[in-house]
From TrEMBL:
The protein, known as: DUF72 domain-containing protein
Range of residues in the leader sequence: none
Membrane spanning residue stretches: none
A family per Pfam: DUF72
Lineage: Bacteria, Pseudomonadati, Bacteroidota, Flavobacteriia, Flavobacteriales
């Protein structure tokens, strides 16, 4: 992921901003005593990108990946709508409990910019729902220059989306968060429809770290900088998630990107170890198979 890439990550202040005041209100309103669901993964399973992750001779990359991690941020679906039989093959390859978190196709988000979404969504959903019980939260990512002037398109999209299918939306234009009249209207819309407000932690766009939850599901896209500070940044997220879990967080979706993706499994493994050790989760530690290489941290 090149979004937010910088040449000098050591010069960036990666401190997580304070929570938006209403985040605690949202989480407290849904609090209970159950441990949250935790999904951690990468954005791709391609062997070329995740160099040295796969044992020598691995042919079924998704089959192997899905037995190391319990989820994948499915970026491939952004670039094109795959045939139905491809979704069926993906679903058949993964174990029970594994979740795909597919990105909505760019035809809807970037090319049409949500125009006629109510006409385009049925075909997208007809394919995506073939993932069946392995479908996690779908997410919509809008272009950097998609601004609040197109508010009506967002409303139409949200109203056209079936409520029974979990959804998260990522906005990248700063005006969605920096203008109170706009942001409050947006947050209320997302809350009303139980849609998660995607959080993106990337070096060059600290201006969109809004820290505003709109549901009890935290959908976090972490972009490492291929720099030693990546591990400290992950530890800071563990601390913040501790706070949110105390307040009532019910699901954590944490997906790791890198400008050089081969390090993504290493960061994801570090994060899983921290979450398991600190909170008693029991996610598999990638690489702990007899036939798998050990991921050295």
């Amino acid at each position: 992921m090149k979004f937010g890439k910088v040449d000098n990550p050591e010069a960036i202040d990666f401190t997580l901003p304070p929570d938006h005041p209403d985040t605690q209100v949202i989480l407290n309103s849904k609090a209970n005593n159950q441990k949250p669901q935790l999904y951690v993964g990468c954005a791709k399973w391609n062997k070329q990108d995740l160099k040295n992750f796969y044992p020598r001779g691995t042919k079924d990359e998704l089959g192997y990946y899905s037995r190391q991690f319990n989820s994948i941020e499915l970026n491939a679906t952004f670039y094109r709508l795959f045939p139905k039989d491809q979704f069926e093959k993906w679903q058949e390859k993964v174990p029970d409990g594994f979740k795909f978190f597919p990105k909505i196709t760019q035809t809807i988000s970037h090319l049409k910019r949500l125009i006629d979404a109510e006409k385009l969504l049925p075909e997208y959903l007809d394919h995506t729902l073939l993932l069946k019980e392995n479908l996690g939260t779908v997410f919509l990512q809008m272009h950097n220059n998609f601004a609040p002037k197109d508010w009506d398109r967002v409303v139409n999209f949200v109203n056209a989306w079936p409520r029974e299918v979990p959804l998260a939306i990522e906005f990248r234009h700063t005006d969605w968060f920096n203008t109170p009249e706009v942001s409050n209207k947006l947050y209320y819309l997302l809350e009303e429809h139980n849609i998660s407000n995607v959080l993106v932690d990337t070096a060059g766009r600290r201006d969109i770290m809004h820290m505003r939850m709109t549901s009890e599901e935290a959908f976090i896209r972490f972009v490492g900088a291929n720099h030693p500070s990546d591990y400290d940044r992950l530890d800071a997220w563990v601390d913040r998630l501790d706070t949110w879990m105390e307040q009532g967080l019910r699901q954590i979706d944490f997906f790791i990107h890198q400008n050089v993706e081969k390090e993504s499994p290493l960061l994801a493994t570090h994060f899983i170890k921290q979450m398991n050790s600190r909170f008693g989760f029991d996610l598999k530690i990638p690489g702990k198979d007899n036939d798998a290489p050990t991921l050295d941290l």
